[in-house]
Amino acid sequence: DGGITQSPKYLFRKEGQNVTLSCEQNLNHDAMYWYRQDPGQGLRLIYYSQIVNDFQKGDIAEGYSVSREKKESFPLTVTSAQKNPTAFYLCASMGQGRNYGYTFGSGTRLTVV
Amino acid sequence: AQSVTQLDSQVPVFEEAPVELRCNYSSSVSVYLFWYVQYPNQGLQLLLKYLSGSTLVKGINGFEAEFNKSQTSFHLRKPSVHISDTAEYFCAVKGSNYKLTFGKGTLLTVNP
Question: CA A24, CA A5: separation in Å to the nearest integer?
């Protein structure tokens, strides 16, 4: 079955560390997205990529970085510059035509310890 | 620019009662509309979507929504809810640059 896999499900980060969240899809979708979710704030877009080797900043890109070297993969790095990284992170990809719309992964909960 | 307003942040209902979750949108591009559901500590799952055609859209788990262009609304309804429908529901509209714009979500709590 096609879908999006995010790993790990839970991640703990010490102050000053960089951590990388994995997102892999086998849906053959061109576009992929990273969102951050905090209680009461809905979904906020961090970065998105519409094609391999290209990506754009979203609304809250500061303190984050991404890469898109393969169509299937869109990892997100939370750097030490991100002052409040504790949140639930969601990866999504966009279908086309009749399948237009996001497919989401199951999320990664990041906690700073 | 596109935007979505979910008029209720929380909706409590009793089991087997009907429910309506309200969503209003604004869009300057072709209107594609979506409802997603999120259970605790999980990703979002597509409930239903409107791309074109019939304005009454049926989705999974007995939910349906009606696209009303004149009122710029896409309200989600279910005639009889179950405890298992307790979750957060997000309305979304097609935005610019191949993205979706989401509302802030409505927490549906079904009480016995």
Answer: 5
Q: Tens digit of pLDDT for each residue in B37-78?
A: 999 989 999 999 999 999 999 999 999 999 999 999 999 999
Could you tell me how far CA A66 lies from the centroid of its own chain? 8
Interchain CB contact of B103 with A (< 8 Å) = yes
Query: Which DSSP category does B53 fall into?
Result: S
Q: Is the pLDDT of residue A15 over 90?
A: no
Compare CB distances from A50 to B34, B98, B105 and report the shortest one's residue.
Answer: B98
**Model pLDDT, residue B28:** 76
DSSP-derived 3-state class of residue A83: coil
- pLDDT digit string, tens, across residues A18-74: 999 999 999 999 999 999 999 878 899 999 999 999 999 999 999 999 999 999 999
- Asked if A42's CB is within 8 angstroms of B32's CB, the reply is no
What distance in Å separates the CA atoms of residue A9 and residue A24, rounded to the nearest whole number?
13
Structure tokens at B35: 């409802």
Dist CA B14 CA B9 (whole Å): 17
Round to the nearest angstrom and report the end-to-end CA distance of chain A: 36
